[in-house]
Specification:
5-stranded mixed beta sheet, 8% strand, 5 strands
Length: 325
Amino acid sequence: MYRLLADVFNDAAMILECLSPAFPKPVRVCILATSSALKALCGVAAGSSKASLSAHFARWGNLGELNAKDSSQETVISLLGMLAGSAVVSMVTSPVATWSTLLLLLSVHLGMNYRAVRAVSMRSLNRQRANIVFANLLTGDIVLTPEQVARRERVFEWDGVMRGLEGRVMGHCRIGVPFGELVSAMRDTDKQSSSTSSVRVKSAAINRLLQIFNIQRVPYVVWVDKQSRQCWIVLRQGCSTTDQLQAWYTAYLALVAVVNKGSDGGKSADSEVDTTLGILESVQSSMKQSFAEVQRRLLEAGWDLSTAALETRSGSRIAFDAKSA
């Protein structure tokens, strides 16, 4: 997504620079400043995404060799582009021909880059790829390979969205959130109760939630809001990439169960919390027995479970003090 977005920024900056002479000087300054900002965004997006893609292609630890070859190829392609541009410029003489050629070449540029990013089959499980794998695993008991997932992957996707097998949005999930945010989400769930009842329900719900996800043994805690279809995942300090993937799978199964169960419009806040806790307890119980097999099948399908790709920003961790337990 960010590699293609970098090309969009670059081409937009080029169009703004070509448009700038048609405007008066005060407006021209703003247009050129916007163009420079887009080029800066292009550099950040292209540099960071290129680093991830280079690490993906360097399968034998030859990252330096790969970057050297890539730099040499870019130099040759730039020289060929300058030669082709010199030939094209001599044939373009009118404004209509100039803009037609520019828009045509930019369309070809974006089209080729779109096909290039679609051809990449990443082996790490980020949020979208994990959702595609888990949806097919849950529905048809099939573990897709990275190549099969790449054909179904969207280039531009909302961060944290959870989709079903047919692409239907079920809800959203956040991973690595502070524990206080999860507690606030539980407080909002029972906000219709009185203040005394709300404190009682929340305290009992938190105690039961921590019993379901025994923090001494389970390195994560999951909560699902049935009304907003939102999921929160709290991670324990020292959790591994496999633990994060298991937490995401738990949240996905819980959200599927919530969607299939539907809305209970007439239930009280206490009943809503109890229903959600029952769903989480059932999902976590089955997770203890099934995830080891799921992990084995993912490795056999060619997925890289050692690379952390589920957290898209710096997350929080909770620490467990065994002495105070």
